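Changelog entry: the LysR family transcriptional regulator record was regenerated in this release. Current contents:
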Amino acid sequence: MSINKVMDLNLVRTFMAVYQCQSYTKASELLELTQPAVSAAIRRLETEIDKQLFIKKGRGIEATSKAHALANKFQFALDTINDAVNEKNTLSVYCAEIILHALVGMEQIDFSESPRSQSMMFEHLREQKVDLVLDVVTIKDSAFIIEDVYTEPLVVVCAKDHPRIQEQLTKEDYYRESHVIYSGRWQGLNGFEQIAQEPVKERKIALSVSSLSSVIMFVSHGESLGLVSQSFAKRWQQQLDLAIYPCPVNLHLANYKFIYHKRYINDPQHKKVRQQIMDRLGNKKSFADWMDI
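Regenerated structure tokens:
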């Protein structure tokens, strides 16, 4: 009966060092081991495969044909291991749609749009299906760290050639017109109700859509108003021929936060990615400046 042997990875690394250096002395210096330890490791590997790997040549050594064959296979295996380790250094990040446009393309980060279900978002954080959330949502749970990252105002957008809105937008104008709204709700309230700093009146809803991209698309081809972040409006102003106005209703700023599990608070890679995102968002006074629009 044959028994499959499990190869000691340390033997593989030691062998590759000796093979590449063609010297026990140089390999021991590279590995920060003693020369006897390196020699003993090679003898152990030779015993396991029942083949000689190196022969003496003058004052040095030379690899045998078996060593050349093993080196090719071992290098492939080590490259595979290194690739797998590097893949783990890519963090999975849920990001609010309205801010995602400014962050895509960053290295070592796999961005996805935040799911509409908050319970699913936090469940994925707990199950380590996602490493970090950047969104305006929040939660009271001692298992999570919540850090403020970036704030910006919300603005009203409409078609540039809107027949009744030109140059300025009053509160009376705002409530008189119809609205395209994002259908997401938090604790029974929509986004407008959540961030309002004053009592709000009922708005005339022309359309309820499932994404903020849909909000600006529909308002750009009609007479309704929409409410989005300033950076998002600036990003699409020229392409969609939008007009942008300060919201005449007093609103809180959109406050984007990092949300992540406490297990990552001191994780080096996680800290690096959080800092990279904060650096990207903090390089300019506002997203409008950052987007250079």
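The chain has twelve helices and 14 strands.
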